[in-house]
Amino acid sequence: MIKFGPSGTDDAFLAHGYSHTVEVPRFLKECGLDIFEYSFGRGVRISEETARKIGKEFAENDLGISVHAPYFINFATDDPQKREATFGYLFSSLDALRLFGGNRVVFHPGSPLKYDRRDAMNRLLNAFERFMDIFYAEKYDWALVAAETMGKINQLGDLDEIIEICRIAENVIPCVDFGHLNARTQGGLKSYDDYKRVLDLLIDGVGEEKVKKMHIHFSKIEYGKGGEIRHLTFEDNVYGPEFEPLAILLSEYKLEPWVLSESAGTQSLDAKTMKNLYFKHLSDDNKYLQ
Ligand SMILES: [Zn+2]
What we know:
TIM Barrel; 8-stranded parallel sheet
């Protein structure tokens, strides 16, 4: 089943009088949403007790939870200590994820820093392959590891690079951030065909099965020459991208991704808008299939 929800707690969460993540399931129910992404962007800091308590609430309400690994991850680093730390960030995210009772972790693959992009990418692939060897040896195969497309041109993680990373192992799936893709291509996602090209490239590159269960981040994002500048809300009508063409395709292709809104402060509202658009097009499916 396709699922929709917010990434992080937003303005509406606070306006409803909530403050703690343990209350998120109740909030999601009120909003008619299905999933939540918990960010460890600035580090994995949560007690085992709190993580279990959060996990229990999600399980009892039959809602899904994913985690976002720390932003410090860089599989392309040439510094052995930083590589060790990168492995640690992703494994500790997985450990927290297990306490939450979830099975999806999203990560930013890395950055070439001062190095040639292809050299950096090869180093990244080598390191990530070693990471995945440990992942299987330590029996983390209950989890899906989602490599995210990045919004800044100088970060590794364009669509082709994410496809290469996903081909390393069965448990690695794409996290397609369509706002990021739109930002790094200077507004390249507009029409139904623009989105279709992305999905077709993905299916060719990683296979239907991984695309069916892929992870999606969606928000409108302001961009400049270097790509992403900042996240916006669905109120924006300058930068885009628009969700509606993708909603049509998700329904036509019968995909069942987790779709997370990363809007700036309106995540739950915009996630609900996406869910409504998806179901609107699901009901008049035939119109688009002719
Ligand atoms: Zn991200």
